[in-house]
Amino acid sequence: MKLASWNINSIRQRHTHVQQWLTKEQPDWLFLQEIKCQNEQFPTEIFEEMGYQVIVNGQKAYNGVAILSRHPFQLNHTVLPDLNEEEPQARYLEIESQGVTLCNLYLPNGNSGGEEGFQRKLHFIDALINRAEHLLQHKQDCIFAGDFNICPTNQDYAPQTLSAEDALVKPESRNGFYQLLWLGLTDALRAIYPTETLYTFWDYTRGAWQRNAGLRIDHALLSPKIAEQLKSFTIDKAERDKEQPSDHVPIIIEF
DNA sequence: ATGTCGGGCACAGCCCGA
């Protein structure tokens, strides 16, 4: 099985990139984040014509997630069960397909909106931990993948790109990521590349790509049985060199 | 602060978010 995740930074700007990429890679599932459109604006048909079933959790202007699937699936959740927000944002999409629970997530960045904005990020992480705990307690094979907006360690961001106060590296954010690992989930990239410096995002500004001033913020966390079956983890850096690229590149796991 | 994107608003450049 092949599962990919890609923060696309507007599907309307980059649906051709996705089409071409799908033709090349043929994943069983593709998780998309930051589609930045409402459900009815998503180009569902072009992916259906390619043999994918499509489920979209969109909203106006910001955020938004979607899953493209070659296999039948059941929708589980469009909001994390324990997340009680007055104005829920489109940041989560969970399905079950081929016996695996597939959780596509786009964590709040946490750097805007002051302390309240940061707390929203921490609440999302808490709800994610609760969801992971629930699925693992019920022996449900599961994968949590997407844009976590967390650099787990200092190796996961280029020197001098972020301050210690940045929400992507703050201890509270990182602690949430570690809690997911302590529950028994495996950081798929680190299972295969324990020590290499690898990034999944390069800012549009300051020639970040040319200077390799990147971040590792797109992750795939695997429940134990899936982790045992993990065969490969790929960061498709070539996408960052294309015309009008997203600032994130696809990550791909095979199991 | 720098800097570059995308979307919204509303129709021309700003503003927000990343």
Task: Describe this entry's structure for a reader.
With 255 residues, the chain is α+β, with helices and mostly antiparallel strands. The protein contains six helices and 14 strands. The chain has helices spanning 11-25, 44-48, 114-137, 171-182, 188-192, 224-228, and strands at 2-7, 29-33, 53-57, 65-69, 74-77, 92-97, 100-106, 142-147, 186-187, 201-202, 214-215, 218-222, 232-235, 251-254. The strands form three sheets. A six-stranded mixed β-sheet has the order 3-4-2-1-14-13. The protein has a six-stranded mixed β-sheet with strand order 5-6-7-8-12-9. It has a two-stranded antiparallel ribbon with strand order 10-11. The longest helix is centred in the middle third of the chain and has 24 residues, at 114-137. It binds one DNA strand of 18 nucleotides through loops.
Q: What's the count of strands?
A: 14
Radius of gyration: 17 Å
> What is the strand arrangement across the widest sheet?
3-4-2-1-14-13
**What is the arithmetic mean of pLDDT?**
97
Number of helices: 6
**Uncertain residue ranges:** none
Distance between the termini: 5 Å
Described by strand count, sense and barrel closure, the largest sheet is:
6 strands, mixed
Shape designation? globular
How much strand?
15-25%
Structural class: alpha+beta
Q: Which oligomeric form is depicted?
A: single chain
Order of helices and strands: EHEHEEEEEHEHEHEEEHEE
The helix content is 25-40%
Pfam families: Exo_endo_phos
GO molecular function: DNA binding; double-stranded DNA 3'-5' DNA exonuclease activity; endonuclease activity; metal ion binding
Site (Important for catalytic activity): 218
Cofactor: Mn(2+); Mg(2+)
